[in-house]
Amino acid sequence: YHAQPSQGTEQEKMDYALNNKRRVIRLVLQWAALYGDLLQEDEAAMAFLEEFYVSVSDDTRMIAALKEQLPELEKIVKQISEEPKAPQKKHKVLLQLFNASDDRAQKRQPIRGSDEVLFKVYCIDQTYTTIRVPVSSSVKEVISAVADKLGSGEGLIIVKMSSGG
């Protein structure tokens, strides 16, 4: 954020610093806009956003051109810090483990490597299909099973969602 070139005129150095600062501010704004609901649960991220806002505010005193991005940054920081702390389901996941209601799950017996689990596989067009794979399957095996079911493995990603979001 504070990178400065060691060569050039003072005006070139100021332009370089301004462009770098604007790029970083845009990056932070995009990051906060995309992950705001997750960031509010992370104290370190919230502390970073607040510290970043203060730093940008201080910089606007010396670099007036940054003032145009300050209100948007302030809005994002306030929005994230004021949102309710309850987790929100805004993100789709590629794989979601079914809460199978079979007898073994209800009796809380130990999971064996030969047991199978069902996954929901979400596609970009908001449809989904299901696959059944052994508990002991590797990530490659799961992705391979998905590719076989969908007919293509191109562009597949695997995402893990925990109960904390």
Automatic annotation (TrEMBL):
<feature type="domain" description="N-terminal Ras-GEF">
    <location>
        <begin position="1"/>
        <end position="81"/>
    </location>
</feature>
<dbReference type="InterPro" id="IPR000159">
    <property type="entry name" value="RA_dom"/>
</dbReference>
<dbReference type="GO" id="GO:0007165">
    <property type="term" value="P:signal transduction"/>
</dbReference>
<dbReference type="InterPro" id="IPR029071">
    <property type="entry name" value="Ubiquitin-like_domsf"/>
</dbReference>
<feature type="domain" description="Ras-associating">
    <location>
        <begin position="115"/>
        <end position="165"/>
    </location>
</feature>
<protein>
    <submittedName>
        <fullName>RPGF4 factor</fullName>
    </submittedName>
</protein>
<dbReference type="GO" id="GO:0005085">
    <property type="term" value="F:guanyl-nucleotide exchange factor activity"/>
</dbReference>
<keyword id="KW-0344">Guanine-nucleotide releasing factor</keyword>
<dbReference type="InterPro" id="IPR000651">
    <property type="entry name" value="Ras-like_Gua-exchang_fac_N"/>
</dbReference>
<dbReference type="InterPro" id="IPR023578">
    <property type="entry name" value="Ras_GEF_dom_sf"/>
</dbReference>
